[in-house]
Automatic annotation (TrEMBL):
Protein name, UniProt field: Fe(2+) transporter FeoB
UniProt lineage: Bacteria, Bacillati, Bacillota, Clostridia, Lachnospirales
Domain FeoB-type G: 2-163
Topology of the protein relative to the lipid bilayer: Multi-pass membrane protein
Pfam families in UniProt: FeoB_C, FeoB_Cyto, FeoB_N, Gate
Keyword Magnesium: no
Organism: Fusibacillus kribbianus
Classification via CDD domains: FeoB
Transmembrane segments: 281-299, 526-547, 553-576, 615-634, 706-725, 737-757, 769-787
Main location, first listed in the record: membrane
Gene Ontology terms for molecular function: ferrous iron transmembrane transporter activity; GTP binding
One cellular component term from this protein's GO annotations in UniProt: plasma membrane
Compartments (UniProt record): Cell inner membrane
Amino acid sequence: MNLRIALAGNPNSGKTTLFNALTGSNQFVGNWPGVTVEKKEGKLKKHNDVVITDLPGIYSLSPYTLEEVVARNYLITERPDAILNIIDGTNLERNLYLTTQLTELGIPVVVAINMMDVVKKNGDRINTEELSHELGCKVVEISALKGTGIMEAAEAAIDAAKNGKTVPMHTFSGTVEHALAHIEEAAVHNMPEEQQRWYAVKIFERDDKVLEQIQLDQAVLDHIEADIKAVEDELDDDAESIITNERYVYIGQIIKGCYRKRSAGRLSTSDKIDKVVTNRFAALPIFAAVMFLVYYIAVSTVGTFATDWANDGVFGDGWHLFGIGTSAYEDAVTDYAAENVWTDEMISAVDAAAGMGVIGAEEIQSAIADEDFGAFDGAYGSYADALAEGGYDISEIYEAALGEEAEGVPDPSEYGVWVPGIPVLVEKGLEAANCPEWLNGLILDGIIGGVGAVLGFVPQMLVLFILLAFLESCGYMARIAFVLDRIFRKFGLSGKSFIPMLIGTGCGVPGIMASRTIENERDRRMTIMTTTFIPCGAKLPIIALIASALFGGAWWVAPSAYFIGIAAIIISGIMLKKTKMFAGDPAPFVMELPAYHWPTVGNVLRSMWERAWSFIKKAGTIILLSSIVIWAGSCFGTMDGAFTFSTEMELENSVLGMIGSALCWIFSPLGFGNIKATVATVMGLVAKEEVVGVFGVLDFEGMTRLAAYSFLVFNLLCAPCFAAIGAIKREMNSAKWTWFAIGYQCVFAYAISLMIYQFGSIFTGDLNVIGLIAAIAVLAGMMYMLFIKRYSEAKKLTKRVKVTK
Ligand SMILES: Nc1nc2c(ncn2[C@@H]2O[C@H](COP(=O)(O)OP(=O)(O)OP(=O)(O)O)[C@@H](O)[C@H]2O)c(=O)[nH]1
Ligand SMILES: [Mg+2]
């Protein structure tokens, strides 16, 4: 028979870290309370018959929030064979409160004092033997992070499950015990003996969930009520507080006997750091700078370098091994281009086109001026057609110098060891195998084009995920919840809404689930609706693609996406709070600030890999399938009046093109009413990476920068992917609310993009009067909601509670 061991303890005490170590799982760990919101099971290593359950953290067995209910229900209704109670050794007093309750459940308990590495470093001492004696259960010392003592702890729990019994050692004061005895006698005497005490205490506390569960007769209830009242009168307090107080008095006594603290009164390093990073004035600028750096490093520097290599090398023509020979080759190419490609004829055509304002001409012009062949080639690929349409055809010169017939073009393999890219290799293979043309197209354009375009962004994503994992596990992000609480609160939002956003930076699905830590139903709904405004990992490729293809990798594009996300949340928060649906005070924000600590390299890498791997898996499944569908959609269509298949199909005549052109009017006021952008946006509902996949398959077409930015913002803010919509549905638990959330997101995204494009057009000179009037109307509406409309019935809440260790 399987033994079931539950890991229970306060939030942020290290349960999930221990769970991962014991079972070899990869559950998310972060340095703030409320990371785990769902129970998770895993088999204990080397013990196939032992199942360990990781539970959300709880402070007591009286739950307030949804994830606490999950933990309590598991312990009470499923009754595991043993409880391994994880305690944060640096904060014994608060952690033992739950322990006193757990030992009353009648389930064997083993206490594992975690964070012993920190306790020892501080020079504090815990007498475990004495503690074990006082609590009536086995006590072991562990460090889940370092992995010390964890197997012993698990084995102690197995042992307890097999033949242990935990009898609570604590007795309340005489009058309370008297009442408890009465309750046991009157209400729960037919329950198993070891469970009676816990139920009696809960009935004494008038816990509505327990009273609902056991359904007592009115006569019995009245009798019990009289007993409770008598105690309350005698001790002059309400029943619940009496129990709580007596528990704390008891814990105080225990601690006196078995805990020696050395580091009293000193300001810890954590406090010193907090003085700076949570400083009233400096906190926000510091946060902005940190997030700016994170996105800048990931998208514009280290990450780009690797992504360029992946996109142009592995999924492109090829690359020089170890980069040896690259610069010599580039010099040779530049020399060659200066002589043969950038002829006077081409330069004057490009200059003339730029003078006429033809799209993309300026990009080509500046690439030539910089003598940057890579930039030139990219811009040529995107805009050559636009130039030709404007009457400045430069393709002849290009083809003559670089086409297949051209001679004397530098060969990269002469400058170093040249590793050909995957498409080149596959193409050769397909040619050798004499593949039919359609299969060629399917594999090269459909699969490698689509999936490769997405996978090429993995390096950037890895960099982003490493940086986020570091910030999350060292404890900085938990501070930001507080810092933002200061601002959020002014608008009736709680800092707690930040935690889901934080997780949503990886993926929106767990982000939406993290909203369970918010007690207040209205605030929770609002958080669910706005969490996906934060760019998730899958939106990163869209940001990176647009930043590099249209903005030449400009430094501000990627960070701006993150700040637009935050701004969207705040603006939505203010507007929604003013409606009847969401009015009301935000709940006071109580969260414990964990001490800073250095995360282990292993943990950071694991967290990064976990997120990246789910992305890669998605590329191999959903993205693969939809790339094939898109490729097929762009090859089937009408040609010469008949419906056929052809790899030469013009986009306008293809099935995809027809669908796109039927819908693209929707987006023309936003500046990107072309077929590709429309198809990309619609496919983004399947998975956000697909937006990039579509451009990979359909090849990037020239858009103005303004239109591209508007496109980017719309795709960042509009309805999330199907997976996230599913999560919204589960957490809202209502179809009506789900549709409302999706509708709101789309309308909001539309409004913002409309303003960006229409107001931007004033400066680029493509002003459209009707569009501008619409944008002004939207702006006026928003301004009214933001600044003029009053909060209905809600007052601003000024109370802010902060609990620190
Ligand atoms: N120094 C030290 N840190 C630890 C130890 N165990 C866990 N941590 C850190 O404590 C933080 C919280 O760990 P988690 O495992 O997420 O805690 P949890 O109990 O699952 O938290 P919730 O899911 O919020 O209830 C993380 O930053 C861990 O790296 C330990 O033994 N020593
Ligand atoms: Mg956890």
